[in-house]
């Protein structure tokens, strides 16, 4: 539970104003096959959807993806250590901050992966 809150705060801080911690990360390519990247993207889009007042069905879909990747993010923190996971997540959030529209395709790929794995279609 504590990781999830930490992830939300990490993402919210970056989305809200690119805090110093976010800009330090190198902007590497976002990998839609990387659960940490997808978790960070899902959180970012979830917050953006709230800020932009996205339609309810869109919010629901984003929330589903966010919930699906959250435990994987938690496992990565437990397995890989908070610092390395944080650095990866921050790199994604930095890219998100700079050019959110270009990450929609990556997020769709993340979403498709979650939906397939959950057995939904």
Kindly describe this structure.
This protein is mostly helical and 121 residues long. The chain has helices at 2-17, 20-23, 35-52, 56-80, 82-98, 104-118. α1 packs across α3 and α1 packs parallel to α5 (82-98). Mean pLDDT is 78; it is low at 17-21 and 23-28.
What tags apply to this protein structure?
121 residues, mainly alpha, 6 helices, globular
| Low-confidence spans | 17-21, 23-28
Percent of residues in helices? over 70%
Shape: globular
Helix-strand pattern: HHHHHH
What is this structure, in a nutshell?
The protein has 6 helices and no strands. With 121 residues, it is an all-alpha fold.
Layout of strands and helices, then pairs:
Elements (H helix, E strand, L loop, with lengths): L1 H16 L2 H4 L11 H18 L3 H25 L1 H17 L5 H15 L3
């Amino acid at each position: 539970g504590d990781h999830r809150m930490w992830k939300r705060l990490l993402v919210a801080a970056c989305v809200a104003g690119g805090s110093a911690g976010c800009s330090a990360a190198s902007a590497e390519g976002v990998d839609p096959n990387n659960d940490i990247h997808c978790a960070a993207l899902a959180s970012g889009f979830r917050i953006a959807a709230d800020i932009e007042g996205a339609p309810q069905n869109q919010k629901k879909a984003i929330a589903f993806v966010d919930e699906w990747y959250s435990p994987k993010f938690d496992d990565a923190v437990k397995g890989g250590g908070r610092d390395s996971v944080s650095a990866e997540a921050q790199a994604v959030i930095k890219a998100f901050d700079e050019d959110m529209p270009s990450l929609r395709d990556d997020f769709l790929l993340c979403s498709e992966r979650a939906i397939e794995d959950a057995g939904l279609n």
